[in-house]
């Protein structure tokens, strides 16, 4: 007998909420940049996210991670998972539209796959993975508009975005090792990660951008942006994503990757009145096509074959080392 499909009413609202929260994060970064340095935006959102997840942690009867060796790993993990990429996204959006930031964020599953194949040299890439990487690379070239030449602040901003999503690729692979080695839940890992990132940016931010401005000097719009990024984008969205994975499975949970770039594009154009050239959204679609190919999206959408006794063949994509958990992180 086949297992009954999960009731969409149990996970679809959370799924759409995640797409909305993560998709509008790029718009809120742009709003906060009006009055805050990028490194302080990263620091404030990480602090609020850590406090939010700490509440969820204790509500579920869990405790923060323990052990000196683990916290040393969390220090390194926090650098590549949040401190550096969150800061790079802010500095990049000083140079490029928020829509482009959303498009680049959508390439995170591809950088995860590249890092996986480099780190696990014994694992040979499948034809599907190679095709997805080639399509994704072609999409990046279209986004850059290489036929027009490259240079200037836009290129610098996009290189920062490339650096940020490369950090995500490293972090996703590090995540699997940490959770297996130390038997951590995703919630415990994230609390430890954000705690270390908060301490890192508490030290780094004044060195990079000078003393922070007075909290009373900010406009309501900036307060709203920081709360949206921290409490919702870095805190609540994580809890919602865990709910989707628990109720609908990792395959459905990983598909949230595809929606934030579209939400970000709508928010950037409609709310921020950003101007795009034709190649940027087209390249973004090609990138997402590459992500879909590499993660086996089109295999998942095909009806699964049945074997004897009506049992369905397991979807091999669910065991894909580059597919599980490779989701948007901003």
From TrEMBL:
Q: Name one cellular component (GO) term.
A: membrane
Location of this chain's protein in the cell: Membrane
Q: Does the keyword Magnesium apply?
A: no
Region listing for Disordered, in residue ranges:
308-330
Q: Where is the EamA domain?
A: 11-144, 156-292
State the membrane topology: Multi-pass membrane protein
- Sorted alphabetically, which Pfam families does this protein's record hold? EamA
List, alphabetically, the InterPro entries matched.
AA-Vitamin_Transporters, EamA_dom, EmrE-like
Compositional bias of kind Basic and acidic residues: 312-322
Transmembrane segments annotated in the record for this chain: 12-29, 41-59, 71-92, 98-118, 130-150, 156-175, 187-209, 221-240, 252-272, 278-299
Its primary localisation, in coarse terms, equals membrane
Superkingdom in the source lineage: Bacteria
- What's in the keyword line of the UniProt record? Membrane, Transmembrane, Transmembrane helix
Q: Which family does it belong to?
A: Belongs to the EamA transporter family.
What is the protein's given name?
A: Transporter
Native source species: Dactylosporangium siamense
